[in-house]
Amino acid sequence: MSMGQKKALIFELSKPGRCAIDLPVSDVPAVEADTLIPAGFLRQEPAKLPEVSQPDLMRHYTGLAGRNFGVDSGFYPLGSCTMKYNPKINEDVSRLPGLAQIHPLQDSETVQGALEMLYNMEQYLAEIAGMDAVTMQPVAGAHGELTGLKLIRAFHRHRGQNRTKVIVPDSAHGTNPATATVCGLDIVEIKSHADGAVDLEALRAAVGADTAALMLTNPSTLGLFEKNIEEIAKIVHDAGGLLYYDGANANAIMGITRPGDMGFDVVHFNLHKTFSTPHGGGGPGSGPIGVKKELIPFLPVPVIVKEHDAYRWEEDRPLSIGKVHSFYGNFGVIVRAYAYIRAMGPDGLQAASQDAVLNANYCLHRLKDAFHAPFDRFCMHECILTSKLQKDQGVRTLDIAKRLLDYGYHPPTIYFPLIVEEAMMIEPTETESKETLDGFIAAMRLIAAEAAQDAALVTGAPRTTVVGRLDEATAARKPVVKWQG
Ligand SMILES: *Cc1c(COP(=O)(O)O)cnc(C)c1O
């Protein structure tokens, strides 16, 4: 098998005197650098930059880009991330000059269309969530969680209650306990049942006069719908706590069920997962939150209001928690999501969720004899398998993930959720065809057969990629991010 050809670094291609561009001599008088920058800060020697011709430059970076793997190049079943294909038209819409070239400090009379879009977007998300109001300000899922917990804390404090505990099931997404800690609240972790559901007895024992909230991911990170949801909501509300819904996985429930109807008081969405914004590499994202009416007075400012068919910002909200982001969040991301929701319509969003759930169940059903399925029941938008059946051959989940690279697939999320040993979390999303799923399933089954017959094929993978197994721990802890020459 061929290892990918080693690629020279741009510095190694450098030849003194070569240049990628040829600019005419400037007819503007030069300004000496030290009149602009204090001499002590000036470089003593010229920067060591690579010197290459334009074709060499172009081919170098185009070649590197071709080695990248993205959802535009192949199947990307990364669980808990919703790596779905996003229609390119939404990119075009977000770049329309009337939207892309306005300024957040413009007089609101000159940007009524943009405000109307933001206002409508809040209404749509409120409808999808079953909530009374929405703020578009938070710019990530975790940021929505933080904003939501600040609202909950402000709500309790306003009522003279010092509630400091947040209950988090062990199946929650890692951001839940992290944001509660950042918010200065204490975590009470409760265990899940063997069937993946929240243990109601453990919940009853955990709630009390100090309970600020329960944070629940539903469907949970096990890809399972929380079947006792109404009972859970009642237990927490009876104790005076509020319910926070991690709705990052809304891809499973749009148009089918609503967090508000389940009894939740706050929910966040990830527009960069469910609503057509490409993600990865750290953003930009958008994590709007929806709230029930008792939390409206505490929402971040400014709040958009509609009066006589005109829109304006309202700043004067004495109980507001203040701002959580500059201006009004990531506008361009919201535009993409708006275009997506308008194009899909209510039926389209519901169909997307139905297809996402169908695709995950199809993968689970077709793979559960080749790999161990710890929860062999109907799943939501993602399913979990493990490498337990391959253990005796010395094949671990990491090996299976690496072998998938040889077959041209991005691996699923692995070793998450933490409470399942050797987990593989597969989220096919609704945008994949049956043929694509069948191809992935065939590759997975082939890997299971290889593990049984010739395990070295799997444990030695990947063989066809540019680099083999990386020392991932060292790469993360001691990254070398600049040219050392
Ligand atoms: C992705 C995700 C988050 C965090 O969202 P970010 O935008 O990455 O901060 C939170 N909860 C769940 C269940 C998620 O899948």
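^ pyridoxal-5'-phosphate complex. The domain at 88-344 is CATH 3.40.640.10 (Aspartate Aminotransferase; domain 2). The mean pLDDT is 93.
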